[in-house]
Amino acid sequence: MRAYVLERSEKRPRLSERPDPAPGPGEVLVRATAVAVHPVDLETAAGGNAMLLPAKRPFVPGVDFVGEVEALGTRVSDLDVGDVVYGYRGIAAQGTFAERLAVPRAELARAPAGHEALELACLPLPGLCALQALDDAGLEGRLRVLVHGGAGGVGLIALQVFARLGHEVLTTASAKDTERLRALGAAQVIDYRSTRFEEVARAIDLVFDTVGSDTLSRSFAVTRAGGAVVSLRAMPSAPALRAAGLKVPAPMAALLPLLSWRVRRRARAAGVRLVPQVTVASGARLDTLSELGAERPFVTVRDTAFPFDRLPAAMDRAASGEARGRVVLTAP
Q: Is 171 in contact with 150 (CB distance < 8 Å)?
């Protein structure tokens, strides 16, 4: 099969021939039809995650995928050859920039009907981020949720997930996106260019932060005591990194609390739980995502689709700052 390999000294994966994988016990062999290019893929290629990754170069990068089941390993009996499945491998495992991949059954799910492959490729990681945020927050009942960056690749899916689960969703976005986000379930859209969200958001149970920096710091003021701020931009803890299968050298484990003490202090002063998220693979959460998308397809933010043999161009597009949504790679 063809696969993209990150060699030791290169910053873009190189297309190579590799043996077809065989599904082991509890695994599924998937022929990929589309994979999304995420910021984490760009960071990995640039060497930014090198200290954390359990695998050393050369290896196949990529985290999200959608494809068809080609073969089943032993102990897998609830899928059939030809089923359309999707999943997220996680930063530790990776390997989706390949024509075929062997994936643990516990990390994938049947994809919801009514979605094209390009849309499905944009769903796993954002959907998992949202569902994991709810689990990590540990809050009960109907929640008042504030999503920062509701028109972005992650925020848009999170907004729809929260709304379809029955939560009241507020979001920050630009004014031009107001009607679209309201149609997708937002109860209130706050134009971040003209209004500080602290002026209108009150008694928030859960803030889902995709922006970080000053936006994260200001979020504690609108979160009720006992609520939670789940952030994709806050410095993660060593236990969270290890739970995602990543390595955490002792010096880094000692340094992480020092790098995040200011924001953690603000959270404590507000009586709010801060949860820096490191997203983990979960077939069970993807099953929930598929159920939520069964009757009405999710709306995704997609930019350009590139053929499989043009991954370097796809990564350049994703890194250019000009992409308006997720860049997707299609496989034959």
A: yes
In a domain, 284, yes or no: no
- pLDDT tens digits for range 110-166: 999 999 999 999 999 999 999 999 999 999 999 999 999 999 999 999 999 999 999
**Model pTM?**
0.96
DSSP one-letter string for 88-150: E-HHHH---SBSEEEEEGGGEEEPPTT--HHHHHTSHHHHHHHHHHHHHHT--SS-EEEEETT
CA distance 46 to 148: 27
Helix (H, G, I), strand (E, B) or coil at 237: coil
Reply yes or no on whether the pLDDT at 332 is more than 80.
Answer: no
Give the SS3 label for residue 35.
Answer: strand
- Expressed as residue numbers, the domain containing 76 is 2-123+300-330
- What residues form DSSP beta bridges with 28? 72, 103
Strands 223-231 and 204-209 turn out to be parallel
